Amino acid sequence: MQITSMSLFEKLYSLVIILAVVIGVLLGQLAVVRENAEVFIVPLLVAMLYITFLQLPVENIRISFKNIKFTSLSLLINFIWVPILAWLLALAFLSNHPALYIGFIMLMVTPCTDWYLIFTSIARGNVALSTAILPLNLVFQILLLPVYLLLFGGTTGVVEWSFLLKSVLLILLIPFVGAILTKVLLRKRHHMKETLFSYISLLPMIFLSLAIVAMFSAHGQLLFSHFDLLWKITLPILCFFVVNFIIGQKIGKLMKLCYADRASLSLTTLARNSPIALAIAMTAFPDEPLIALTLVIGPLLELPILALISQVLLMGRK
User: Fold this and answer.
1) Are 115 and 72 in contact (CB under 8 A)?
2) Nearest CA among 41, 46, 48, 51 for reference residue 211
3) 31-34, Cβ contacts within 8 angstroms, sequence gap of 24 or more
4) Domain harbouring 208, CATH code
5) Domain count of the fold of the chain
6) I want to staple 38 with a disulfide (CB 3.0 to 4.6 A). Which of 44, 189, 218, 234 is the partner?
């Protein structure tokens, strides 16, 4: 899987999300749209995740175990250190805002399964190694997200086990299993598979944008009534990226990783998977739209930060 450049749509991703929010808020002024927009959110998110999972190289899981050092470091940072860091930052900055607290935890405990490959390539990191770890990131976050929410958010009064379990089954497992079955059916039809994948690469972002339009059509007034809370979530997100970048680089040097592997380690432990977290939030917490709002803010900050970090890594390499 070779990642060499970003398409125009990818470069404008943050702008596309902002545009989706604005369109959603404007459409929400129409009563007929506001009252019916919510029914479109879950189908759009399920479609987004199905196509996202369809493009993931799940068969590469076995390849990731060929580099035990990198795989172990990546999994330890992503699934042990990062949840602890997220919990500490949430306690420090968001303890008085339960919905933002939960949204922040959800954002931080779900490692990215696509974006970081682009920035790994820009930073001249080991793209093949980053691609190999990608399926493990996906499997572990599906299994552990409910655990993290109950462990770190159980005392907030927001998390309910029944709704959470239903959301994981509906939003994650169904599209994941559907994608696996589709891959099995296309296993011997290589030309059809390549043709299909060439046409669907941008669909996840399109479906995500449409889901955001639907969400803000239904809950757009929430953005304006809680506009003062936006800076409260921005600060811990920025702290996360700074702290985790330093930790990733220090550990990489301590373990004597080469530059390319160290860059890959930093980016796979920095980039977050806001679409998956957003899909869970919209179904598990339908009465807490501020949680979803937090997960929309995340990628607006993440894309420029990852672009900056890839340049910082390149400067350090030189």
Assistant:
1) no
2) 41
3) 33/217, 34/217, 34/218, 34/220
4) 1.20.1530.20
5) 1
6) 218
Q: Is 63 exposed, middle or buried, given 0-12, 13-18 or 19+ CB atoms closer than 10 A?
A: middle
Helices assigned H by DSSP within the chain: 8-11, 13-27, 31-36, 41-55, 61-64, 68-76, 82-94, 98-108, 115-122, 127-153, 161-167, 174-185, 190-200, 203-225, 230-254, 259-268, 274-284, 289-317
11 falls within a domain: no
**Residue 10 domain-assigned?**
no
- Beta bridge mates, 272: 111
Question: Which structural domain, as residue segments, surrounds residue 282?
Answer: 40-317
Which stretches of the chain score pLDDT less than 50? 1-6
Question: Which residues, in sequence order, are bridge partners of residue 111?
Answer: 272
How many whole angstroms separate alpha carbon 111 and alpha carbon 267?
Answer: 10
Contact between residue 156 and residue 91 where contact means Cβ atoms under 8 Å apart: no
pLDDT in tens, 225-280: 767 777 888 899 999 999 999 999 999 999 999 999 999 999 999 988 777 787 77
Distance CA 284, CA 49 (A): 16
b/e 13-27 (16+ beta carbons within 10 angstroms → b):
beebbeebbebbbeb
Residue 30 lies in a domain: no
Does residue 62 sit in helix, strand or coil?
Answer: helix
